[in-house]
Amino acid sequence: MKISYFETGRYVPSPDLPREWPVRSGACDLDTVSVALRGMEERARFVEALGFDWVSLSEHHYSPRILTPSPAVSAAWLAGRVDTIKIALLGPIVPTSNPIRVAEEFAMLDALAPGRIVAGLLRGTTNEYLSYDLNAAEARARTDEGMELILRAWTEPEPFGWQGRYFQYRTVSIWPRRRLPGLQSYVLGTSAEAGAFAARHRMGLGVSYGSFEAMGRATAYYRQQCAEHGWTPGPDDIIYRANMILGETDDAAEAMLARRDKRAPFPIGGALRDALIEADVSRNVAGVRQPANVGGVLPISFCGGPDRVVEQIRQCRDAMGAGVLDISLTDPGTGDLEAMMDALTLFGRTVLPRVRDI
Amino acid sequence: MSFTERFVDADGFRIRYMEAGQGPALIHLHGAGGLHMTPAHDLLSRDRRVIAFEMPGFGDSAENTQSDGMEALASTMAAAVRALGIEVFDLLGSSFGAKVALWLAARHPNMVRALVLEGPAAIRPGGMRPPSGTAAEMAPFLFGHPDRVAPMPDPDPTVAAKQRRLVGRLRGPDQDAALEDRMRGLAVPVLVLFGTLDRVMPPEMGREYKALLPNSHLVFVYDAGHLIAAERPEAFAEVVGDFLARREAFVITRRETMIFP
Q1: Could A164 and B235 be called an inter-chain contact, meaning their C-beta atoms sit closer than 8 Å?
Q2: Please, which residues have CB within 8 angstroms of residue A196's CB and are 6 or more apart in sequence?
Q3: Residues whose CB is less than 8 angstroms from the CB of residue A225 and which lie 6 or more positions away in sequence, other chains included
Q4: b vs e for B124-163, b when ≥16 Cβ sit within 10 Å of the residue's Cβ?
Q5: Distance from the B46 Cα atom to the nearest Cα atom in chain A, whole angstroms
Q6: Mapping DSSP to helix (H, G, I), strand (E, B) and coil, where does residue B51 land?
Q7: Number of domains observed in the structure of chain A
Q8: What is the longest distance spanned by two Cα atoms in chain A?
Q9: Is this complex's ipTM strictly greater than 0.90?
């Protein structure tokens, strides 16, 4: 099992910070932001020294919960500051992005840190569509087309045009080009569409936060699709992103779980939340309809002392075939940095050496 | 725009064609399956005079034993255009017809203003054969999403067999060195279109044309199979129409993005 640390730009919010998304920009403390973002280097170096395989980044907007609106900027900052750990962008939100820009940024990062960049392409959670004014009803189709265009931009040696449904370009010819083969690439999502796309293009699949059983259905669908396309994905082809509470003992972890805030850090208000869920009706797990999670509390998938967590990781591996575990050891947005660093240390000392062979 | 069926005599053939529209002439040469009108013909005929030929030996025309190669067929089609009183025209060739069109442009460069190749089959991967069978059997090869297009009528077996014989006899080697030499010297602006889901001619073949044709543009039509005009007529007609109207300048977008003045 490879282990990835999910870096979220750990902003420590003041007690009086508004708690509803979008958080007013005027409440943003720039010194705190600077500490949070520059601290990415310290945390990445810390997990690199602990033996983590990847540090992962994501794209979120308009709140300090995950303070990385541009994963490419975050990755570029880290690329020059770490030595061996891979930097996984999981990932840019494709339907709100210019796909050519995404292709160029990955190619540039891949040249800056050869062999150390991991590319995840993502449809994104429904609330993110508010940030760049995307019609949720078009998100699925824009994602599929955007991903096709990114792959084409990465692989086509001659200048080309693109006559799409949602994207139109007359001339594309990216520099730098991407190394082939090289960039490790994933589609991120649980839907049948994501699994089918990844299988068709021989890409990995990243799933997140759901139960082992539900995510196992998504990865089983993906593996079935891969078989139909004549190949078998390996463990490194499946990523599972999840929350973990790790204590010195099971009881200590359970106590932390009991103390965990039951509210999401920066939730979206009720009426807007309901409207968003209603607007985004194509969410599914392996083809079975699943309502969108709009700014809700994300579940804890692993909880316990080291022995129990090792066993849970083994169960995760068996249930969904994941060979890369991308973890948060305290909830993003909670700002409890000291607790997180302690948990990372504990994980590196007591869990990491025991999950290598899983 | 409704198309009118007409006939013209050239090289001893009586050649059927469909015509609509006014303005600069666009000549269309069809693929190995014969002439099938699509909504893209209608869209293109709004701004130009569209003439879609049924080449000798296709459809209900007599078996063509006279043409002894693609170059000869191209010569016949040039004669047919001239017989209509047209000296200069835009040329669209689809699949098999794209090879005829390339030969026509190579032999008569002063007649062709601009050339469009739809899923061209002038350079083929080894072993590729045109799809055959019933309409339902061919649809998965011809369309990216056969479920999204109106079912095609089954081809008349006699006509289909006649066309297969002709195509098999004329189409030449997978890589035609003589044609490729001529392509390298072709100055006419060329637009090469491939559907991203083309299962007859891999879209990666587009780069072969881009490398050979000195004044060419390669455009991928997303989510379309081999019959791009039939499957995504609006997207096809827009890029073809824009290219024919502005040729090389078509890369400069004129798409407006202002939401409110």
Answers
A1: yes
A2: A225
A3: A195, A196, A198, A199, A200
A4: beeeeebeeeeeeebbebbbbebeebeebeebeeeebebb
A5: 20
A6: strand
A7: 1
A8: 61
A9: yes
Tell the residue number behind the tokens 């909830």, with chain if given. Answer: A331
A171/A158 Cα distance (integer angstroms): 10
pLDDT digits (tens, 9 = 90+) for B56-92: 999 999 999 999 999 999 999 999 999 999 999 999 9
Mutate to test the interface with B, among A170, A173, A229 (most CBs of B within 10 A): A170
Q: Which residue has the tokens 């369309």?
A: B143
Could you report how far apart the first and last alpha carbons of chain A are, in Å?
Answer: 5
Can you point out the beta strands (E) in B55-154? Answer: 89-94, 112-118
Rounded distance, CA A351 to CA A303, Å?
12
Are the beta carbons of B207 and A156 separated by less than 8 Å? yes
CB contact under 8 A, A164 and B211: no
How much helix, strand and coil, in percent to the nearest 5, is found in chain A?
45, 20, 35
Determine, for residues B222 and A165 on separate chains, whether the beta-carbon distance falls below 8 Å: yes
Which is it for strands A160-163 and B216-221: parallel, antiparallel or unpaired? parallel
Residues of A in contact with B207 (CB under 8 A): 156-158
What digits encode the pLDDT tens for the residues A90-123? 989 999 999 999 999 999 999 999 999 999 999 9
The CATH number linked to A131 is 3.20.20.30
Q: Is B219 close to A163, i.e. CB distance below 8 A?
A: yes
* pLDDT of B235: 98
Q: Which domain holds residue A65?
A: 2-355
Pairing of strands A288-289, A284-285: antiparallel
B180 and chain A: CB distance < 8 Å anywhere? no
Domains and CATH numbers, chain B: 4-248 (3.40.50.1820)
Question: What's the CA gap between A114 and A286, in Å, rounded?
Answer: 34
Q: What is the pTM of this model?
A: 0.96
CB A244 within 8 A of CB A260: no
